[in-house]
């Protein structure tokens, strides 16, 4: 006969027994999962493929520059990084360090980039005021038949300028023209200032005519140098003229 609950035998009198049986079954599952593993495995969720361990960053991102420790260990570095290293050393005027790297990579540099390599070395010399070393690099270029560019002569001019060799700075300007190259406005003004610093009136006139023919502007630094030259040499008319130009 059905109990008072109308759904299961035993009615209310059996409810405590059923609750105890359910609790015992739950405890058994917790204490010994092996008893339900086979039956429950079909309902266990499967993780998607995205749950797999992601690849390491090195496999996804492009490699960065090598560390100092890697360089010291002698690992071969891409040429691009070494060229960038040379340029940074040149900017700092670290001639010895730049030369060391240049010697390491010169055989790996394509022929079309050899001139750039020597130009960078000369730039290092100009930053450090090592004019004689800059000349040696220039001579080495010529020996292996690398044609200098406007930049080459510009860096040689700058190296001479930093060393206080103003006559030499003018000489490299003349070498630029002799090579059939067009000097930059900076080079032209540097030649003019070099003549002014040496108080060489004829050379000042020469470079002023040269710049006028090419319609190049006399920059502020050159104007100041010309005023100083006029004052030193007692040329009041010239001093007044260029002073007025400076105020324009």
Automatic annotation (TrEMBL):
Residues 1-37 form the signal peptide. The keyword Repeat applies. It holds the Pfam family PPR. InterPro entries: PPR_rpt, TPR-like_helical_dom_sf. Residues 38-73 are annotated as: Disordered. Keywords: Repeat, Signal. This is Pentacotripeptide-repeat region of PRORP domain-containing protein. It comes from Alexandrium monilatum.
